[in-house]
Amino acid sequence: MRATDVGSFRFDPDVLVRLIDIAAGDTSRKPPRLCDRCACSEFDACHCGGAGSSWTGCHWVEPNLCSACADRPAAAAAIDAESRAA
Q1: Residue 69 pLDDT
Q2: Can you give the three-state secondary structure of 4-63, one letter per residue?
């Protein structure tokens, strides 16, 4: 069973450390590129399709928007934003 099958997702440790540094006020390094809707990064793509060994990840369609989120209806993205804020 993969972690994504049970509702969790991969998150690159370097991205996490950079976000912690930014929260602590350290702006000496460039912030990571994250999707505004799902927070995937250039190092941790969303799962967009495929089964088994044919895993397919997302790609950037705008500076801060991945292809998986661009394909989702806006209402679903709004619900996601509300759940993250809670």
Answers
A1: 85
A2: HHHCCCCCCHHHHHHHHHHHCCCCCCCCCCECCCCCCECCECCEEECCCCCCEECCEEEC
38-66 confidence digits (pLDDT tens): 888 888 887 666 555 566 778 899 999 98
Helix (H, G, I), strand (E, B) or coil at 72: coil
Residue with tokens 């993969």: 2
Residues contacting residue 41 through CB under 8 Å, at least 6 positions apart:
11, 12, 15, 32, 33, 34, 35
